[in-house]
Amino acid sequence: MGNSYYFRKIHSLLGVIPVGFFLIEHLLTNYEATKGPAAFVDQINWLNGLPLVLLMEIVGIWLPLLYHAVYGLYVAYQARNNVSSYGYFRNQMFMLQRVTGVITFLFVAWHLFETRLQVALGNVAHEDLGRTMHDIATNPVIFTIYVIGVVSASFHFCNGIWSFLVSWGITVGPRAQRYSSIIWMAAFVVMSVMFIMSLVAFTGTEFSVPVEAHSGH
């Protein structure tokens, strides 16, 4: 029981720092696509120009993400949902947190395979990620899957922040938790809209040509 308590605390903390930061960074990077291919590539190049970027990715993203995902799947498997019996709001959110966690895990794994892994294998250059996302976004079926994936990830993060604030004793009373619900569900809507706007931006024909075709790049 003691180990389970600490494992869950670590799982909760990693969902905010650094996995949550990674999601927000990913959101802001992809949102640059709404400004055009050049802005998106500039952001990609800036990120990849950071010192010790590979080490930061391994230690600060991939290992924490792996722990959070694997332990999260274990928690989802062990969870006992009582929505059918009780049906109150927080029990529904508890169930949705587990469901979106599984969807997000599968989506992130697939997305990383299509993008980051292809770059690592040398199949796609960083500058061509916009074209890769264009091919993805212009496929109606995959576009729909991506929308489900980004909405699930946004919900899982925002509702997870609500749970984090409760479990770490930051929002203690019912009033604080109620306001926290409103704030984080509003954040969920904003994040989802931004992600979907990014996907729509990638469908633009300007992303179908090499970046060099755009003036100044």
Put the structure in a nutshell:
The protein has helices at 2-16, 19-31, 37-48, 53-78, 89-114, 116-120, 129-137, 140-167, 174-202.
Detailed description of the structure:
By secondary structure, the chain is mainly alpha-helical. 75% of the residues lie in helices and 0% in strands. The protein contains 9 helices and no strands. It is globular. GO terms for molecular function: metal ion binding. It is found in: Membrane. Pfam families: Sdh_cyt (PF01127).
Keywords for this structure?
217 residues, mainly alpha, 3 helical TM bundles of succinate and fumarate reductases, disordered C terminus, transmembrane helix, transmembrane, heme, Succinate dehydrogenase, metal ion binding
What's the arrangement of secondary structure elements?
Layout: H1 2-16, H2 19-31, H3 37-48, H4 53-78, H5 89-114, H6 116-120, H7 129-137, H8 140-167, H9 174-202
Judged by helices, strands and strand pairing, the structural class is: mainly alpha
**Could you say which overall geometry the principal axes of the C-alpha atoms support?**
globular
Weakly predicted, low-confidence segments? 213-217
- Radius of gyration, in Å, reads 19 Å
What do we call the CATH homologous superfamily?
A: Fumarate reductase/succinate dehydrogenase, transmembrane subunit
CATH topology: 3 helical TM bundles of succinate and fumarate reductases
The average pLDDT value, as a whole number, equals: 88
SSE topology string: HHHHHHHHH
Keywords: Heme, Iron, Membrane, Metal-binding, Transmembrane, Transmembrane helix
GO molecular function: metal ion binding
Subcellular location: Membrane
Main location: membrane
